Amino acid sequence: MQFKDRRTSGSQTVLTDVGEARAPRSASGNGILIIIYGDDLGRRVRVGTEPLIIGRSPQCEIQIDQESVSRNHCRVRFDGSEFLVRDLGSTNGTYVNDNLVDEEGRLRHGDQLKVGRTILKFIVGDDIEADYHEEIYRLMTTDGLTQLHNKRHFDEMLDREVARAKRYKRSFSLLVFDIDHFKTINDRFGHLAGDAVLRQLGAVLSGRLRVNDVLARIGGEEFALITPEVGVDGAKELAGKIRRLIADTRFEFEGMRVEVTLSVGVAEWQPHYGDGAEIFQAADAKMYEAKRSGRNQVCF
User: Fold this and answer.
1) What digits encode the pLDDT tens for the residues 211-259?
2) H-run or E-run covering 277
3) pLDDT tens-digit profile of 196-210?
4) Residue 180 backbone dihedrals phi, psi, to 5 degrees
5) How far apart are CA 99 and CA 85, in angstroms?
6) What is the radius of gyration, based on Cα positions, of the chain?
7) Cα 104 to Cα 83: distance, rounded to the nearest angstrom
8) 197: closest CA among 215, 181, 218?
9) Are strands 12-13 and 8-9 parallel, antiparallel or unpaired?
10) How many helices, marked H, and strands, marked E, lie in the chain?
11) Does residue 138 sit in helix, strand or coil?
12) φ and ψ of 247, to 5 deg
């Protein structure tokens, strides 16, 4: 089973910026911010030539009522040629594409602005309405935090794969995995750290699987992977590689290292299964068996 590698340091995977390459767009003082993760999902706010404040205060142009957001958290402004974002002394910092904004940084088309636990995507340019509708469509299938598929898309793809298996008598396998002791991570480091771990995990796994594989975040810290035309032996091998990759990756939040491991359950489609729920229950049961057996392991 093909499993792509990325840059490593010694035996440890190094996390890199999860931001995508940005095509240059002319900044004419006309942009929008779209909430892609957090409350009011899909809400858009126009960003023009007047400065815009984001924070918990009701007086802010974009109010985000979360404990992790400061009253006046950050400011977005247009300087005549480009958009800039400045942190306003917030408690938890302002991030662009997971990079901390020290003073004032550029905000470009496609950038993701993280304020507390909320993520906003910035769009600017002549095709702003088309880009907005494209982003809303993408939100229907994508988890805004991890940039993996969401549960809705996973359910649709699982039903499709079950139909293919029944029609063509082709098997497939399903991996269900969960971050071990995730509640402890949240309790020890805070929910912002938990979000960072989930986001980094998505970045680590993205691009390392086959084109036809479907990887999704299906719950808080739970993920699932559909592997078309792969039997249980190949799925076991893949599950072991994923488990080892995550265990060897250095996850960090604000300079603190966070140990992350996975418990993985594997199941192969069986002819007597009636629908996708049955193979999911089988893989989910194996995942819980891995947890009961000590965690950081694969059961099948």
Assistant:
1) 999 999 999 999 999 999 999 999 999 999 999 999 999 999 988 999 9
2) helix 276-292
3) 999 999 999 997 899
4) -70, 140
5) 12
6) 21
7) 10
8) 181
9) antiparallel
10) 6, 20
11) helix
12) -65, -30
Q: In the structure, what pLDDT confidence band is assigned to residue 173 with cuts at 50, 70 and 90? A: very high
- Are 30 and 48 in contact, with CB atoms under 8 Å apart? yes
Q: Is 264 exposed, middle or buried (0-12, 13-18, 19+ CB in 10 A)?
A: buried
Tokens read off for 116: 């507390």
* Dist CA 284 CA 44 (whole Å): 37
> Within a 10 A sphere around the Cβ of 126, how many other Cβ atoms?
11
What's the CA gap between 183 and 181, in Å, rounded?
5
- Tell whether pTM > 0.70: yes
Q: Give 74's strand partners.
A: 54, 87
Can you give the pLDDT at residue 76?
Answer: 97
Q: Is 61 a catalytic residue?
A: no
Which phi and psi angles does 251 have, rounded to 5°?
-90, 135
Order of strands across the sheet that contains 222-228: 214-217, 222-228, 172-179, 262-268, 298-299
Q: What DSSP designation does 149 have?
A: B
Q: How far apart are CA 77 and CA 86, in angstroms?
A: 8
Q: What integer pLDDT is reported at residue 110 of this predicted model?
A: 96
Q: How many CB atoms lie within 10 A of CB 46?
A: 11
Catalytic-labelled residue, pool 67, 221, 252, 259:
221
Q: For residues 236 and 233, what is the distance between their CA atoms, to the nearest angstrom?
A: 5
Contact between residue 57 and residue 75 where contact means Cβ atoms under 8 Å apart:
no
Q: For residues 10 and 25, what is the distance between their CA atoms, to the nearest angstrom?
A: 38
